[in-house]
Structures
1.
Amino acid sequence: MKRTSFNDGWEFRPKGDQFTELTGRSTPYRPVSVPHDAMLTEQRSASGDGAGAYFPGGVYEYRKVFHVPAEDEGQRIFVEFEGVHRDAMVYVNGAYVTQRPYGYAQFRADVGPFLRRGADNEIRVEARTHQDSRWYTGAGLYRDTWLLTGGPVRVAPEGVRVTTVEADRDRAVVEVTVEVESDEHALRTLELTVDLKDPDGRVVATRTTPVTVDPGRKAPVRQRFYLQNPALWGPDRPALYSATVTLDDDRGERDIELDPERATERDTERDTERVTFGIRTLSLDPERGLRINGMPVKLRGACVHHDNGPLGAATYARAEERRVELLKAAGFNAIRMSHHPMSSAMLRACDRHGVLVVDETFDMWTSGKSAFDYSLYFAEWWERDVEAMVAKDYNHPSVILYSIGNEIPETGSPAGAVWGRRLAGKIRSLDPTRYVTNGINSALAVMADLAALREQVNEQPQGEGGINSFMADPAAGMEALATSDLVTRKTAESFALLDVAGMNYAEARYDLDRKLFPDRIILGTESFPTRIDRIWNLVRVHGHVIGDFTWTGWDYLGEVGIGRPQYRTEGGAGGEFVAPYPHLTADCGDIDITGHRRPASYYREIVYGLRTTPYVAVRRPEHHGKTPAATSWAWSDTVASWTWPGHENAPTTVEVYGVGDEAELLVNGRSCGTRPLESFRTEFDVRYEKGALTAVTYTGGVETGRHTLHTAHAPVHLRAEADRSAVAATGGDLAYVTLSLTDADGTLHPAADRPIRLDVTGNGVVAGFAGAHPATEERFDADEHTTYEGRALAVLRPTGPGEIHLTASAGDCAPVMVRITVTA
């Protein structure tokens, strides 16, 4: 079917009260560009819920008027929604068309029967959200919309599937299956052509075959292609092929042959679909682990939520690609979308950049986690939503695993195992080429049995790692619980029905299960970032453990403050999960919401063996001597800065990450001594003085690398740098402009934070503006925002070909300007 962007021309408003509107008082619509996050229009307040970043819920209406030509009579017309959060209701010309409760499911509305041909038509979409998730969801038409049109006989939407049957460096067998559907009342015979192009755009195979379709039925057409010397898709070389499928009505061609003078362009009906795919093989066993094209791969994984920081949940293609680019640059080779299906835009980006994907279905099944979550709809809708996810993912070579859930409480019960088998079986029936996992949390799986576990406490040893530690240290408690006989027994069936046992915070089972379940293949589907050194060693030495996914790779909105620094108070408090208003983000992740890498990211890169240069970070001097009391998701309260005005000669702790035997710390060239590197890190207590702070690592007495931080000096300068000098006017492109406060030499000045004001003219608008402060009342849709640790980020959306001019000003700093070209 012909696919046309349907993103333009929408209007939006909070849903009005029909009875109130009878009095003439109505809430006006305003124009918006889709993708659009309705929740960002709301005002946060302390009366909100920390899970949703203190944004209130709401009900929202979108409408659009579009013209349908009279000559489109007989055409099938759909509107496709890549995601509406949530409880979407779709109406055309006032008539109900369809609905979709799940906010992450791609679905289509068959609007054709409700349209007036040769006239304007109104489509209206309602969306509502309220206490339905454990994170910030956004609301409304937050993903792309499409208009699909096709004739009475056409290639079905998502009707082209490409499968690698077998492949090696010399030869590949590729199967292309096309589903042709007909609304005709008579038998139809057409010609179907498939052209395959290699990554360089050369046609490497083509085939034409007749296909006859029964009236009102579907006809699957399968063709096999045998390719010599294929370019295999893999993380290091993500080679992408394309398949173009053309469906021609041969009646028109016969008319042209018999009487060319009377033939017209409309005599031949043509329907074209194009998909990209990769040729690659997957294999899995408990000794050699995961192999792609026969080569072993360990998953260096990042769990991520779907929001795009200052854009909220709005899913622009460039925003998704930028996240993939930055995560890969930080050392990750895999992403687990948490805890719902990934956007098509991010899947395409993962394909292009060779980043592997674990795509996930649900965060809950029949047992709810929030007051009004998807558990209310699961039993009725799960099957359709699983079908939608697999149909979306099938041609993406980056997808290697489907996850049927995350921390599902039912997984420790026989009933939960029944549900798990249903979901796994459904996915395998739709796509037998990938593997199935489930992110199982041991504590949640046996929650109903914890009373029985408590009775065993007095029988357990009181030493380190005992069950008693669950009360004193939740992380240690989860570890002890994960290895208990109770968990082993209760989760056995739920793990057995999977191809890969997904374990959240249960690395203590890795060695144990090698003995108890020698055929069990394990993936750490979620883990504490503070334990990556220990965890990665387990992944590295165990063949049956195929990788680890940290919580989290990228900071996110909602679940506020789970990773924030906390310190023990006089009353002994600390380690609290949810932070009070105005906290905005989880404050957890290797990368903050603007895309800036935090110290934990560099440590991880060293642990992975991807970085040999050391890295130095400084704990905030104002907290020196305090006892940390944060959760296990929190990294140390460090900043990569040696600029601490007001703390001259104050004691502070310096952390050094590196590879080698030992590290030396130098302050302005003076040695502060050497310390052994243990678990890739060490620390020094020194007194702050302006100048240079240098860490040097050694192996066998030989220097292996050094990293230096310099003090920033006055005056402060404002700098602006765009990620690209030119962007496209269409296709979800964006320009990212990093604004920073530095000295004359370009050294960042994290202690000079101040408001920055934007003025944007030309062919673009501000789509989002933010610092990365985890607790702020400033809005993303404002023209002014305060820097955080010397940085802010402006996101610009092009509105048409031409140029975008951004001028930024910050107090006594000289204004700066950025010019970006927008191409057609």
2.
Amino acid sequence: MKKLSLIFFLIYGITFSQNLEEEIYVAAETFISNTNNTSLNLLSEQESTFKKQVKSKSEQLALVFLQCHKGFYLEKIFQLKDAITTFEDASNRFKTNNLSKFSHFDIIESCLIPLGNLYTKTDDFTNAENIIKQYIFLAEKSNHIKHRTSGIINLAKLYQSAGKHKSVLELTSKNLNTLNINNVQKQKLIDINDDSQIALNSSLSKTIDNNTFEYYKNNYQIALRKRNYEKALFHFNKAKKVFLYQKEVFARDLAKLYFQEAQLYYLLNDSKTALDSLQKATKALLPNHTFASLPLRSELYAENTFIDIFDLYATLQEDYKLALKYYDLSFYISRLLQNNWTSQENKISNQAANRIRSEKCIDIIFNAYQSIKNDTLLSAAFKYAELNKSGILKERAFKQTLLQKYPNDSLLLKESHLLKKQEEITNLLINEQLGKSKASIISALSSDLNAVSIKLKTLTEAINKKYPELENTNFLVKDLQNKLLKDDAVLVEYFYGKKNIYQFIIYNDSINLNKINLDEAVKTHITNFIHLFDNASIINNDINKFTKTAYTLYGILNLAKASNFKNIVIIPDGLLSFIPFEALLTSKTHTTNFSKMPFVIQKQHIVYNTSPAFYLKNEAENNTNKLLGIFPVFEKTKNSLTYSIDEANAIKEEIPSQLFLKDKATKKAFIENSLNYSILHLSTHASSGDFLTSANIEFYNDTMYLNELYSLNLNTNLVVLSACETGVGKLYKGEGAMSIARGFQYAGAQNVLFSLWQINDLSTSQIMKSFYKNYGDNQSAYTSNHQSKLDYLKNEGISNIKKSPYYWSAFVYYGQITKPTNRDNKLIYTLLGLFILLIIVLLLLRMKKSYGKNTAGILN
């Protein structure tokens, strides 16, 4: 009986499997023969059922086939996000079930190529590059020349979209000469190469036949770059005519064509025709739009062409309110695109484009305010300035706060784990690429990174649904002003634009907005002041030059308007992030005695922040106040830090500490112990990185690069980076320098003290001794940083040469204004508390004794 049941089960199982596989293919073929929204809804329902049922490889493959065709249709009807999700699921299903060994199904053509193109269309450049490199590797492995060339073409297009034209030329030139490719693909590589040569103002290496689309397009682009707009229009119209005669014209390409036409007519000062062309571009993407009003947000989707269209609409408006509404639509599309990204590198690069738009919005409001004088306009301008300032850091900090609030939330915990994994893989991938590792290793890491990204997107969607407050991380200006009133402070925020620097001065009861024309003279003053700190001798060799430059820059940056406040919160931006504001001079001076110069630090306490959101953020309670110190020292090497031991001894005298010195100061020791201390102090070497390598910090036995630092999850009150250039790194508009200091901020450090240039070992040791002596007394990093610099200037044992601001102003403090507490007062309060407690205990004992006597008397 058992044997019969087993045979029946096997026969039934095989039949069911075959039926399910066939059912999936029938559902797919039915949809392919009649694609419309009704059949799509039916297919989606069937797909959901199939996902729960599939088990065998043949069933999984059938489902991959279905999903690929569904993805094609979703892209066609502009549901790009759903198309990406569908292709991602198909790709993951194919890989997870190892279907490449089971079938000859062309996953590259059917899934990976369209997925990579969709990533590019939605500006997800990180995932696009990863997926394209994956299928290039797969094509090389199977010696599939056509697919490999398709990958090269799409990778070149991706680099072109990202503005990496030199990479495009290198990639296309190399593969034009080495590949045995067909004529169609060869022409595509030539066309892409030509476009990048034009973008770089290079002369074209090859001529193109007359009367072709590429011929007219190239001539149009060349004329456009030379600002010969009439000639550009002539060639554009010729190219347009050829383009429209093609058998199949996709809506997206049509929209881009009409946008380019609109842009050209705008440059020709023909606003009416430009608007007509913009309407055609909009209609191509939104066929049902009526133009009676602005497009509704519910109509829009994550398509980057919309941003170009709305930006130009905004430029053509005479009404400033309408212009701002169109820009707001562009920002909305940008957010839709960003919602599908997981890599911070991708988000950071996007902020640069958004910053240009923010500057235009601020400029519109500034000009409107000159005639309207409505203070609500200033608040609106401030919000635009904040819209793309340190967005990644703010998002990360908000998520960390949420996790601290809900530490057992499985969604948040999974996301935290995946974010850590993402940065770890990114760090490995960067190192492998620098080391020129095997293509198989790089491909595997790229695949792993893409898999993590897909999981993160699913999680993020669920988290945003569960915590809708994540959609709005803006703060109220009134909350900011209330905190400033409490701290007796003023906030000065800079927005470093392309044409102007905008300065917002936030008082406790008002806002002031100033425009600083960013002409060559102003740029020169800023860069000259920064370069004064390139080495120790520059300032001392020409002290008069320093004093003039420092006072002139103080005036340019309008800091006198904030001079009546003891405390000043500075939000720098762009190149201003590298300026030590404490070293500016508040008045003219002819003295060469540094201790007598009217430095800003002599009158005001300065605290920096990357955004007012961090100044407003409440510090998490961490009462341990214990310090972890890392001191590699590097003795008997050319990088020896001789005075680092003195620094360590000074710290130990003032604060409960665990110090790892010399060969104990390893990266492993730091990672394993960093979560257990409220203060982290690293006295070591660091680098701002270069074009190839990211910023990094040295341990005794190893180097920690930025992405590895990002993967940490700290809850640290204070990080002190007693090392060179910890605040310097590749500068990105809005997000700031990709520095070691930013790495610690991203990892969760609430307050950070770091350096802006290569610092002197001895003076650093002296300043740190003073800092920790003061910190031991007042428990305020903000006050201690200020006082340590004043102590240094007042120290009669230090020569005037060594009192140059080069030696003392390198360290800047980013964080909270923490009110100081006196250590002696704390001791007095503690003793007083104990005395009061003792009296209470004695009184209770006396009462108890008295009560006992009374009870005895009653009983007698």
3.
Amino acid sequence: MAGNKSKNASSVGSKDQRLLRREQEEKEIAKLEQRAATYQLVSGSDRQAVLFETLPLSKRTREGLQKAKYLECTEIQRKAIPLGLRRRDILGAAITGSGKTLAFLIPLLEILYRERWTTEDGLGALIISPTRELAVQIFEVLHTIGKRHTFSAGLIIGGKSLKDEQERICRMNILISTPGRLLQHMNQTPGFDCNNLQVLVLDEADRILDMGFKRTINAVIENLNRERTTWLFSATQTKSVKDLARLSLRNPEYVAVHDQAEASTPAKLVQNYMVCELERKLDILFSFMKAHPQTKALVFASSCKQIRYIHEAFTRIEPGLPLLALHGRQKQSKRVEIFDQFLRNKFSYLLATDVAARGLDFPSVDWVIQLDCPEDPATYIHRVGRTARNNAEGRALLLLLPSEEAGMVAALKEKKVPVEPIKVKDSRTTSIRQKLQYLCFQDPEMKYLGQKAFITYLRSVFLQKNKKVFDVHALPAEEYAASLGLPGAPRIKFNKKSNDKNQDRALKRLLADLSDSEDEPEAKRTKASEKPVSKVDKMFARKNQDVLADHYTKLIDHSVTTADGTLPSGTTDFGATLPVVDDDDDDLVVLKRADHGLSDDENTQTGELTRRQKARLRKKALKADLSSKVIFDDEGNTIHAYDLKTEEDFRREGDISQQIAKRLQRDRAAVAERDEIDREKDRLRRQAQKLKRKLHEKGEESEGDGSDDEEPVVMLGGASDDDNNDSSDDYSRASGSERTTNHDDSGAESGEEVVVRKRKRSRSRKSAREPSSSVDEPPRSLQTEEELALQLLADI
């Protein structure tokens, strides 16, 4: 009784504690709401205004900030956090390294805390990031400052198991994701609901739109509820960001930490640019790394293939260089590993594409070197923003070609970016051209990577929109190829885009026919109409049948020329001719399916339909009648699976209520008939089982006791006959004697009882299993089987 009283007292005490804690939280939430509504921004000269303690934040958030050693607010945090606590839509612009992540994470946690958000309430906050690395970094900051809160947070990015994410995503209160992965879960994950969303955050909004996620973001926003708070943060405010703000924000507050007269880069960042020839870039970069071994630096290039080639070549030439490579073609696990390794290293060089240019916070980065010219001043600002963060010092170096200098410097000056020119001393520059040539000569894979780096760089220049800065025809292709160690420059054809789709299709067909005709010998081309070349003949006719050589032949052997030996219009003579495909892949070497069939008119005359024509017929049939089920035969002709009556035809047959009653009566009769058949089958099955059991018992009674039909079987441990029948039979044959008991050394019986039984060979079973006659009997009907069963039962 005393124990029960103590348990009851403890339970009552715990309930009182929970009620008291809940009352305290409600009082704290009411005070915070009041303080947030009346909070006024104070000038930055007052030190109390830049401390987190002065902001109307909950105790849990303040403790998380103190544990993470966040004590003072930056300017963007001091302006954005009070507006976020009031649930105002925000359009924020701040230079890189100004603390935008905390500017939206702190009010996000406070809004969910004041709403007393739980797991049952579903998704409360959604943060969208352009890159996986930035999403991982935001998640780590959220985990650091939100440890005292009870919200569940998840990271949804590509490169991980979709099934594992689907199992946990529905239980998340805060979600950090990339745009593509988020839209995939919205379309494929059942139960993923965003109707209760409170806050939507788009970090690096301009980069999200620049990377081609505009349609994805619009689709995501359409799936969200309109009664939400939306925050857009970025280092630069472009026209596309303002357009997105007009679509998704309601009366937003514009927050900027610098005026138009101020620079858009950190004040302690020393920025220089250097004009050099294209073929000297790698020599200058290698010389810089040799002269600054104890440095932590970021090196940006245009394409993934360039990063791979530079990393592989420099590590072979100088194995002691602390080099890392980060690009979008790597697997997610590899990217996270390299990201963490660069964070931990004190001295290291990270070769990266623009995947590392946005929002990533690398501590103590000394230099940012841009090997290739950025596409616009905004990209430049984001790249150099990886250094000189949080009022620290840093340096930036930009390598420009003579054709790029005037346009890019003028664009940077217009954006108030203070860049100054410097020159390099030729005496301190080391040439690595001969070493690269030796590597490409010794290793075909290095040569292949060099060719891919050459192609992807020229393609990146060709695809730039600002033609005043980027002129692919002004590039010294032969000299650049020699600087990469290549024996010659691959010839690249740049297709001029046309608005007429028919012209583009005709041009592709012409190029495919020309390339196919040049691949085949002259004799085969003349006899192509008489005897087609089989796949086996083509396979044996190939040369250098290995993976590297196959790609290599695509780069150097295939050239496209006109009948007079000249290149087509829009072609630059750089070596091997390759089409420039405007897609997400960095590879230019793509295999296009040649159209070897007849034209549409010829196919129609011969009665054969192409896949495109069949698709048109399907679309036309579906648009014609959406209420009917249509199937197609092999020739693409439409066949109606069933015809639907119109309402008028249905009414002509009589009263609707009477027709419904007749239909129900007919269905009930059919169901009753089916039930009667099922019951009859079940009754016959039971009778057959009963008959089989009686025949079995009758056969055992009539079995004789002759010794020839009996074999001893030993059963151990009281096991059943079915379980140990076969094993006991083998045991008895191996022993050669019949055992009845099992004795120990003292002569007493052991605990295991040995049961001896006789296995009987039943001829009736054998006769039941085997047919008595080789003559096959005709099949009997259900009524005949029933009569036979009743007659047998009567005889027994």
